[in-house]
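Lab channel / #folding
Pinned by the channel admin:
"Please post every new chain as: sequence first, then the structure tokens as a reply. Keep commentary short and put observations after the output so the thread stays searchable."

First post following the new format, from NK:
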Amino acid sequence: MESGKMRSISLRRNRDKSVDNTKGNCSGMHSLTALYRKEMSDHITSKRFVIILCLVMASTIAGLYGALSGLSDAISDSSDFIFLKLYTTSGNSIPSYMSFIGLIGPFVGLIFGFDAINSERNNGTLNRLLSQPIYRDSVIIGKFLASASVISIMVVSTGVLIGAIGFLKTGIHPSGEELVRILVYLVYTIVYICFWLAMSMLFSVYCKHSSTSALASIALWIFFAIFMSLLASMIANAVYPINDQYHAIINTMSNYNCELYLNRISPYYLYSEAVSTILNPSVRTVNVVTMSQMVGAISGYLSLGQSLLLVWPHLVGMAALTLAAFTIAYVRFMRQEIRGN
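Reply from TO:
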């Protein structure tokens, strides 16, 4: 009898624990959902969102105008994959849509995240928020997911807008492979911008003032976009000099590979190389090709699967960088003493 009672008590305790865990999981999910909806509402109704939307739409319209202006010359050069040229063609000294997004995209991510945490801490709203029955990790996760959702909506909307207006203006029908390539391109773009979102949130957690985190984020963006290529070239020339004919003969390949690998540390370079390969099927390699390797090669276009084989490490690399930046911000935020600030 006593063993039966002990067994029933043990079963009751296990059942109570499972119920408590279920309630805790439901409470955590409910708080995350509530914060996600709040952040989405704050983004959509803010003046910042209107400014960013106007900037993105202006870039999209300018890229589309440049593509339509230079489309006839692009078609004369090649009559294959014409629909993709709406995203890659520039004209009248106006960069392509792909170039605009590569430049403006990081700015969008930085604007959404540079004051995500420190502004609420300085205003005192973070203390009031955490005094509610809300898990602390729901705050930073909800902010990241809401900003990533707005970024995804913007990217997909502008991508669809380019295709729709291009189709109405030119009457060019996209093939199935072209549509999939555009979809893959939009996915790469979302991950790329989300990296800058995660990085700006990292600075927002570490920096006490919003102005400091904004300056740090912009400085990192400028370094990767401009100075990283210069630094990579300087290092490659120092390690494998090519300043005379003898060294040029023996070090050219090593110099190029060194500079290439150093440039690939930059998310900006990874993104540019990846989307250029996706939207331009004539790109057959992302590495140096020797003359011996070109012997017997047949010119043509790569299929979508073959293009993805070339650039899937780029997507994995950008996703890993995004996850690393957000993880560091998450750990730092969870360990901070909020009430003391």
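NK: The CA atoms of residues 76 and 269 lie 29 Å apart.
TO: also worth noting, The two ends are 58 Å apart (CA to CA).
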